[in-house]
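Protocol step 4 of 6.
Sequence for Major facilitator superfamily (MFS) profile domain-containing protein (Oryza meyeriana var. granulata) entered exactly as in the expression construct, tag removed. Do not edit the line below.
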Amino acid sequence: MLMVSSTLQATHPHPAGCNDAATACSSPLSPFRLVFFYTALYLLALAQGFHKPCSEAFGADQFVAASDDPSANASRSSYFNGFHFSISWGYAVATTVLSYVEDNVGWTVGFAACWATMVVYLAVFLLGTGSYRAEKPVDAAPLARLAETSAAAARAWTKWVFSRKEAICTERLLPIEEVDGKGFVVKLLPIWMTSIVFAIIGAQEVTLFTKQGSTMDRRVGGAGGGLVVPPAPLQFAISVTFFTLLPVYDRALVPLARRFTRHPAGITKLQRIGAGMAISCLAKVVAALVEAKRLCAASDAGLIDRPDATVPMSLWWLVPQYVLIGISKVFGVISLEEFFYDQVPNGLRCVGLAMSLSVLGVGSYASGMLVSAIDWTTTSGGESWFSDDINRAHLDYF
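Step 5 output, structure tokens:
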């Protein structure tokens, strides 16, 4: 549908007297084409919501043994690393090759390439149908039982928290024998809520970081010209960090840590989540320092009131903060998904992964609300931290 929508847009003629297709003189979209386009976007989002948690849980189920033995847990941990290793290659291609095709060849060709790739993916997936490990759930209606027990678990949550006399000595929050799913949502809620802060930081890589890069010197090949790099493809550094560090972590750091901790995965999932959060905080510190330097460079060059001018500071100053975000995701995002998968009953694995993925979505909304709140507060008190003139804004304070 997106391919058809872009084709309709490409074949729609410009109004009379408009000779430059790059100028903002195109006629507005018709209501039908607008509805068609947004329907395609929402169907794509709906498909992602169904596909990602189910496909990831299905892959992890291939490594679940009959008993809860350490070898199965270690293999499953490697699966989550490998799953995201593959995804990082997809992001790398999307932010480099695909973005170039869409900018220089056309959106229709870009969407057609995505469609063809999905057809090949579906064909390869169906070829292995006979070899997959697929077991019917013991309970035919786990979601119905979850709805019935969630209310009772919510009422008991306060008592469960304040009546415990001993600290939790293992990572697993729910007893292994508890298979009815009672209260697991409420017990995982504190982890889910604290992870939203981590997701807020990750959401800014495609917004504020890109805004920073749009004002910097993006030329490659010398000061006299050369290739001009768009700011968005710099997110490629995150993907490079992913598929560079993941094999090192899985094949070198985990065995090394296992010698000291005796843990099958080297470190626990909660420790890995905490490391990811700490590294993401370090990334924001670096981003603030880089932004402060960029503002100084703009001031020294007399570009404070010229937001469209190029600040004499290389785009590559942004690479460290992108790399740190990539490292934080290697630790935080993967272990968060694995943790939620491990904590839920067998019949609700997809729900557990959906909860972990919802952290990213809620974090994006929370990031937008945080920016709006700070913008309103700082505007009423003087000059906004998110001024339209980025050289007068204070992203370094944020």
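Step 6, annotate. Residues 200 and 290 are 19 Å apart (CA to CA).
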